[in-house]
Design brief:
Layout lengths: L10 E10 L6 E8 L4 E8 L9 E4 L4 E9 L5 E7 L4 E7 L7 E7 L4 E9 L4 E4 L13 E8 L5 E11 L4 E9 L4 E4 L13 E8 L6 E8 L2 E2 L2 E2 L3 E4 L2
Antiparallel strand pairs: 1-2, 2-3, 3-4, 5-6, 6-7, 8-9, 9-10, 11-12, 12-13, 13-14, 15-16, 16-19, 17-18
Length: 240
Amino acid sequence: MEPDPDTASDLGLFTSIAINSNPPTTTVHISYYDKTNGDLKYISKNLYSSSWETPIKVDEIGDVGQYTSLAVDQFKKSYISYYDSGSGNLKYAANAWSWRNKMIVWGGFDGTNYLNTGAMYDPVGNSWRSISAINAPSKRAYHNAVFAEWVDSNGRNRSELIVWGGWNGSQYLYDGGHYNPALDQWTPINTVGAPIPRAYHAGLWLDFMKPDTGRRTREMIIWGGAISGGFTLDGSRYKP
């Protein structure tokens, strides 16, 4: 017997389970109804991992999540049909990496102070909530931020905001952090081998298959920007 993956409130009604068979990332997926809050929830666990992922609220608008039916494909994408008891409608949700799209705003300059706080906006609920400032990067503006999606060494899907570089009013920066919206948690970025401090630089997240090896590569590219004394034409690659 394994410990309960979700112990909050009155859970487990209308449960559906599916397993994708794609070693070494074979994963158990479960959808279920949170009776206390009237939410549809989802949780997953890599069979080679010792712990479950953080439970996710797939839909929390009204009383939703009864009669769930879950299916997955070989790419670990999940599909859930479920009942909305408020409207009486059949509903459907699918995910590639995350269930709901949200906007994250972080850092910047308010005209007087540099900031290291932020918030998340949910367009479905038309609502904002503050994000944690614990272990967040230092105050800055003119930094770069990309939303990154990759599979870690434990076979877990990771969807995180990566912030790097910027200007704090007195110096250029070469540090940053990862923000995990599911855990509301920051993790510092390793600065060993990082590019020279800069701001106003370009950055993007790449997800591609190398034609020579057939291996998939996911990494952040940083290039150019303003540095002490002028501008630079160099860059670097970062793998989370």
